[in-house]
């Protein structure tokens, strides 16, 4: 069996930056275990598989896998797939059938290998539980307790389809100095596969509002250079923390700097009468390469 694939760098317009993504085309006949093996072979933070849509008005069906498991939602695979499909079809409206529902992306072409996509979240972010004690969080990050939190932001657990422990820290110095204490992870967070999104106010870049790092012990590199689903969860905390009862604004978060893969994500927030009514994620993606998988599945059984 031969399968065409593309590699993109997402949440950047510069190759070898952002978060790399594999997009496998015409995956209709692949079984779940096959997709999981392919995702493990690429060993990127996520691989997205495209198939024919169930509804004719949609562009493609999608399934998203890490090297270890399938995800119902992830931002950088959806952005990358939307840019790829927009560039190849010359369409600006890309409708993707994901596990969380149909995601409609608006894609703007930048050049022949780069585009920018935005999509509205099918599931608005919400607080799902209280965060662990800040002293214990600080210990797992190798920080002091007083470095946790800034302004009105405090540790919280939010989800827009994937749950994150959101941890605000004082400044970029604290963010860059994180050293994980992995042995305490399960004890503090309840499991080893809990994802932590640490963020601080941006200090030196007028184009960004926050800087962030995402840690997940199940990821190939433990740290992720750009995490759309985490930015989506952060929208919920931003909306709940904002003093304004009515708000319509785009915030920008930079991630991946400490990994040498800087990324930039847009977070769209709209509140009316102190209620979040719209949340969206946006970013750029650039084509890096393509190839063909030549697989003989009977050898793997």
TrEMBL record:
Annotated Pfam families: PhzC-PhzF
One term of GO molecular function: isomerase activity
InterPro entries for the chain: Phenazine_PhzF-like
Annotated GO CC locations: cytoplasm
Protein name: Phenazine biosynthesis protein PhzF like
Organism: hydrothermal vent metagenome
């Amino acid at each position: 069996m031969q399968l065409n694939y593309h590699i993109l760098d997402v949440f950047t317009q510069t190759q070898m930056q952002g978060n790399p993504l594999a997009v496998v085309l015409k995956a209709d006949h692949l079984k779940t275990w096959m997709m999981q093996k392919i995702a493990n072979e690429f060993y990127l933070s996520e691989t997205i598989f495209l198939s024919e849509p169930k509804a004719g008005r949609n562009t493609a069906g999608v399934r998203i896998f890490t090297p270890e498991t399938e995800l119902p939602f992830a931002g950088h695979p959806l952005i990358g797939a939307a840019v790829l499909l927009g560039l190849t079809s010359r369409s600006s409206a890309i409708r993707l059938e994901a596990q969380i529902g149909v995601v409609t992306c608006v894609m703007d072409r930048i050049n022949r290998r780069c585009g920018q996509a935005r999509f509205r979240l099918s599931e608005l972010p919400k607080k799902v539980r209280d965060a662990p004690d800040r002293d214990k969080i600080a210990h797992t990050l190798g920080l002091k307790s007083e470095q946790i939190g800034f302004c009105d932001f405090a540790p919280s657990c939010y989800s827009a389809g994937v749950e994150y422990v959101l941890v605000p820290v004082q400044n970029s110095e604290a963010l860059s100095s994180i050293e994980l204490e992995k042995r305490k992870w399960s004890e503090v967070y309840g499991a080893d596969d809990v994802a932590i999104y640490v963020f601080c106010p941006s200090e030196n870049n007028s184009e960004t509002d926050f800087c962030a790092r995402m840690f997940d012990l199940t990821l190939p590199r433990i740290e992720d250079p750009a995490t759309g689903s985490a930015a989506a969860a952060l929208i919920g905390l931003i909306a709940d923390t904002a003093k304004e009862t009515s708000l319509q604004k785009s915030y920008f978060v930079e991630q991946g700097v400490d990994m040498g893969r800087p990324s930039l994500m847009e977070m769209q927030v709209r509140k009316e009468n102190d209620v979040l009514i719209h949340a969206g994620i946006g970013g750029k993606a650039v084509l890096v390469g393509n190839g063909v998988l030549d697989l003989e599945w009977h050898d793997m059984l």
